[in-house]
Amino acid sequence: MAAIRTASASTVALLADIPSTGHLGPVRAPRLPVAGDPREGCLPLLDFTAAELAQGRKVVALYPSWRAEPAERAIGFVRAALLTDHIAGVPVELAPLPLSLVTDQLAHLAPHLPAGLVAALARELPRHVLAGAWLRTLGSFADLPTTLGRHLASYAPGTSFLAYCSPWPQVDRFHRGEPEPPPMIPDSPVGMLSAPSGHAAADIVADHLAPLLRPSQTATAPAQPLAPRYWKSHHLVEFAVFSVHPQALSRAVESVPTTPCAWCGEPVAVRRCPFCAAANTPPPRVRPRRSAAARPGTAADPAPPAPVMAVPRPRAEPAPAEPGTERAAAPPPAEPAPAASAPAAATTAPPPSPPPAPAPTAPPARAPRPVAVFHEPPASLPVAPNGRRPGHPLRAPTNN
Fold first, then answer.
1. How far apart are the C-alpha atoms of 291 and 372, rounded to whole Å?
2. 101 in Cβ contact with 21 (< 8 Å)
């Protein structure tokens, strides 16, 4: 049997035309678009993967799940051409702007974590980001979780919407006076990236999104070429709200339960290993409860009640007989006193309790009722004049 290989370092690549946000400075994952001619589109990924494998690193290739066919075809071609399983494709259901942010965050963590954990974080980090877009119209009713009324209202002048793609899909109508609260706000301090596209007003972020989301830091990212395709609209403002706390990424890493793959040894958090595709049993996902000290302004969670354990009470022993007299038979053990009479039992002796009633016994089983069995006498016995044979009182007479 081959020895189980240990986890190794990795590098992250994004297989889509999604520019970097520049939030992490020089740290950014390489962008390798694979759209276009299948034969020519796979060559950049093939050369990049071969160079990384020569350096002893595995490749975690991210791609948008809403444009998965070109990326899956390119990853399959590279695995077959290099005869390796050290490249894993991970689909991510995010809009272009938050997908670019998450990719750069994974590129920052990849040199310090095993490849399997980096692939698992690609599904965990979107849960810590509030991402969406301000839309003037809802272009596609089938792609967004909205109602028919809101879809028809998008054709009215002066109507706009807030659509969220993370942490879960949601569409709210945007009211300038009383906007609806967002589904989630990351841990403080909060930063926000925005990217206007088309003819969207530049003051949407400063006048409406910033007062609603209340970020402590704001920055503008370049417009994403694939944003109109994802949101089905040409007039939009993408935004991504995330925590800029120094320990934010460390908390995300600690919240991912993993188990070593049974074949390649990489830590995995899903049923199928993204590298060797071996079947595994993922550990149960348990999120630790955050204390009130980590979130100022919230009341402390009450401590769970301690488990109540039943303590058996000692039985009362009979008093010893006086010397010179015969010892009487020991009385039956006294029943434990109720909780309400516990103080009185400490000062005065409890009155003798009546002997316990004998346990009910089951009635004796009835003997089976005897069944009369009639045996046919031999044919040589004489027949009485009335037509009956001896020993057959119930036999009917026969007519000759």
1. 83
2. yes
Nearest to residue 90, comparing CAs of 274, 258, 257? 274
**Spatial CA neighbour of 50 closest among 78, 80, 13:** 78
pLDDT tens digits for 75-134? 999 999 999 999 999 999 999 999 999 999 999 999 999 999 999 999 999 999 999 998
**Dist CA 58 CA 81 (whole Å):** 16
Q: Give burial (CB, 10 Å; 0-12/13-18/19+) of 179.
A: middle
Residue 213: its H or E element: helix 210-213
189: preceding bond cis by omega (within 30 degrees): yes
Domains and CATH numbers, the chain: 1-128 (3.40.50.10170), 129-254 (3.30.1180)
C-alpha span between 153 and 164 (Å, rounded): 18
Write the DSSP assignment of 135-171 as a string of letters: ESS---TTTS---HHHHHHTTSTT--EEEEEESS-EE
